[in-house]
Batch of 2 targets.
Target 1
Amino acid sequence: MFRRLILAPAFLLAAALLPAGPVMAQDTPLRIEITDGVIEPMSIAIPAFHGDAEIAARIRQVVADDLTGTGLFSEIPVATHVARPASFTEAVSYDDWRAVNAQALVSAEVRQMGDNISVGFRLFDVVSGQPQGDGMQFDARAADWRRAAHKIADQIYARLTGEKPYFDSRVAFVQETGPKSARIKRIGVMDYDGANILWMTDSSSLVLAPKFSPDGRRLLFTSYDSGFPQIQLMDVATVSARPLTRDASTMAFAPTFSPDGRWVAYSREQGGNTDIWLMDVATGAQRALTNSPAIDTSPGFSPDGQRIVFESDRSGAPQLYIMGLDGAEPSRISFGDGRYGTPTWSPKGDLIAFTKQIGERFHIGTMRTDGSSERMLTESFLDEGPTWAPNGRVVMFTRATPGGNGQPRLHSVDITGRNMRPMNLDFAASDPSWGPLLP
């Protein structure tokens, strides 16, 4: 079969099933076993896509970059391919692909019709000699060719790993320019791989810590537009913002959405005391969740929206705590050496990522929600502010370099601690917020 899909109107992409040809029973489909041990990348062949050569080559390259960028796939160089299929519908010569040690094969065709494109692809299990799932056809605007490529890569990734996909997603971030003593900052939104940057704010006032809404249509951020930190809510499509807080006697910062988008949890400082507050976005009604002399900040919701993890120094040094929405006495979950901060709950619900400082070194780490199985994923002069990919498999964070000319850069790492990668950006950036998988 071959399935046809169309992207959402914002980007206008669609998909459909394609006939995959004769399909044999397959009890054990080809799949990467992702464990904490050493992973041997799966060898995958991605021959030239058929159809309109220029756009087909661009789409093929993005698909290959998405897959190999995970560290889970190794692309077989096209120059070594034995098979040279003449068309998208040509029968697969499995022996030729086995001869170059391919385990999986991608076949695709791209057709451009004016301002629109149609991209069909099939995935084959070379080891067993049969299709790996249904073929698919994506229809999109030609301008959205990168999204079509990400959708194809998402399908391949999901079928070969058993994990949910994450390539067709966006990241909000803060661009930083100027010296450390006078940084100029503005918020941008980009594809997960750094392409298609859209600027959400200018550099007229200081902005910090953007956070995507669960549907990816809105952004929360802290703004110093009034001269005092307050929270603003922005519509991403219209790039229009409005203040959520405006009390000149208090500082409001570190906001985050609940999973249903109804609530915003944030830090509120008044009279030298900082607590976690909860606000109804629609009505503006709000209430305090903590009330202690400690500094309580950096709230993050659980995926079910029933609990909040946050940072507090109530024990004498910054540690991580979890509480319910009733604000009942929080439970401490971090007990290791060092100082903990910026916790964020995995979309899977099983892990919490955080920043940890031990001495003069900073780490990005994860732990289970009861505080067990703590693991450090990174170590450097300054790593901070983790954010999760939509599938809970990858963490993005800010890494800064030391010295007067030090700059922050965005990096990502697998939750096993492998495949550390800098983002492909030609400017300094911080405060990433990974949005949801796009429709």
Target 2
Amino acid sequence: MAWWQSAVTTLGKLVGERAVVDEPVAAPTPLQPIDLTEDARVAQVLDLAVRSGEVLLAAGTSAVDTAAQVQFVAATYGLARCDVDVTYNSIRVSAYRGPTMPPATSMRIVHYRSLDFTRLAAVDKLTRQLRTEAIDPVIALAEISAITHSPHPYNRWVATFAWSGMAASVAVLLGGGALVALVSLLTTAVIYLVNLTLNRFGLPYFFQQVVGGFIAATPAGILYALREPLALDVKPSLVIAAGLTVLLSGLALVGSVQDAITGAPVTGVARFFEVLMLTGGMIAGVALSLRIAAALGAPLPLTVPSQFSTSLTELPVQVVAGAATALFFALACYAERRAVVVAALSGAAGILVLNLGLAMSIGPVVGTAIAATAVGFVGGLLARRALTPPLVIAVSGITPLLPGLSLYRGLYALLNDELLLGISGMMSAFGIGVALAAGVTLGEWGARTVRRPRMLRRTEALRYPFLQRMQNGPGARNLWFRR
């Protein structure tokens, strides 16, 4: 029974009282409250709050969680009554300072979208320090400025290798062989380097997606045209689907659906429209490549395999490929090493749950929703144990489940005048995407509920420790202790 006791102990560590609540629930007692009559100090605190929220919003965090972050940071320094408005690309905060003083207001525009998970984890760590330490706002501002302006922790070539490895893992996950994996790896490396160059010239991201879709589909047409002279056995649809999955992985689908579910419909619609536009650019690039291939006399075959396999004999390979896909995505987004390991476990869990669900004939959309819920739940439990924001684990974990092949099936059917099949394929891809985002949201909510400490369940509020100076006698050193 030793293994059983070990399992119970491990579970208790994950969900017990020592766990950290995933999001700010109640404002702590200020460790170092500022003077609300000092406009400069109030402005520093509000600047700190909106800049911490900026990092979260740029990384794809939902508007509700971003607003909670801003409110929590402001309340830490005594600005407990704040109205926060988070939209698609802006954060506005207004702090109430009493009936005799005008409110203090600050606003920040988010001009970028960042997939640097190291910065997200660094801001999360800084927020935890604000909960327990008396950090001066000036020092905290300097720290967050250093976080946002610091270079990526890995070299660009590491990111290139990670994106390429992700494409190769997706190709294996979809049933491709060594040749398909190699072609997907090289194609994705070209896509990343070309789009990196185009981004330096300021080309809008929509056109970068068009170029990426075109490059993803071109090698598939060439290989299929040379299959007989070179005696190749290759499925071009798998090469294209692997490239599409890589391009889809950067879209803020989870954040858009979370906004719609959690009460921020305006921001959710804006984010979802961005997802649709970028997906449309990717589809346009693939369609252009397929049309050129058909015009040159090398049309691709009409048969496109299904994205989901119900064979349990392939389960070990798919679980390993799913773990590798999530791991490479986390690495490509500059996640910390401990987060990369947890992301791999999350990706493996998602593929395992999905395949078991499909074996029970529950359907791809429902199966994907259940798998995403498991990813959000398990990732929410493990993320704090690895001191990593749950968003990192959730987005990485659902990457192997993205509907790249389903999207290609629908697109190819539409290009060949099979409207019913094409619309069905597109709606299937859309349903899978929404199921992924909704499942992750539900799983994260469940993780937060399970991990709520008993003290919070009793009082519905957290009592945070604060520091008090203790004198040890004349000439003795001042000591600080928590109570």
